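Lecture notes, part 5. Sequence design as translation. It can be helpful to think of inverse folding as translation between two languages: the language of shapes and the language of residues. The source text, in structure tokens, appears below.
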């Protein structure tokens, strides 16, 4: 029911539905996970962080740790706090090591890491990850693609106008 309500854009009702389930079982991991996703969608990152911390305490998985890193990154972006973004990188590093994640095989992990590196002004590292993502994203050549846009801004930050021009060849805005 909560999923249907959220898909209809009825956030408050969806959240109430999830809270009802959590009243019956406060450790219901699926409801907790859904709640943190709802809160993230509404940009309530501090509340989402508390929920994901509980998820990790109950079930320490790559999935929950990815969301923890994602929330920290979003908190850092929302408040322009580079410390939170560095925390996101630490959580992701721990997650990659603990769960033996191959960054080049996980589009979500790779994309988050590229965004973290970009914000931390580690543009060469960001570019390397974007090149990995480019191979896996059929939408890459669409200028509306977030990866395409991040590639352009990263190349600009590196002062690589030649590569930017090459990337933009053949694309003409309508």
């Amino acid at each position: 029911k909560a999923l249907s309500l959220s898909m209809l854009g009825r956030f408050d009702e969806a959240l109430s539905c999830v809270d009802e389930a959590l009243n019956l079982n406060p450790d219901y991991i699926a409801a907790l996970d859904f709640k943190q996703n709802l809160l993230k969608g509404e940009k309530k990152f501090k509340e989402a962080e508390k929920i994901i911390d509980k998820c990790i305490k109950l079930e320490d998985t790559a999935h929950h740790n990815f969301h923890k890193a994602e929330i920290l990154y979003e908190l850092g972006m929302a408040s322009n706090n580079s410390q939170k973004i560095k925390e996101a990188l630490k959580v992701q590093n721990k997650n990659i090591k603990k769960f033996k994640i191959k960054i080049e095989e996980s589009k979500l992990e790779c994309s988050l890491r590229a965004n973290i590196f970009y914000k931390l002004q580690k543009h060469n590292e960001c570019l390397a990850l974007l090149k990995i993502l480019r191979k896996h994203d059929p939408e890459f050549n669409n200028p509306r693609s977030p990866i395409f846009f991040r590639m352009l801004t990263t190349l600009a930050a590196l002062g690589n106008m030649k590569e930017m021009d090459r990337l933009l060849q053949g694309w003409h805005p309508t």
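The translated text above is only one of many valid answers, since several sequences can fold into similar shapes. Residues 96 and 102 are 7 Å apart (CA to CA).
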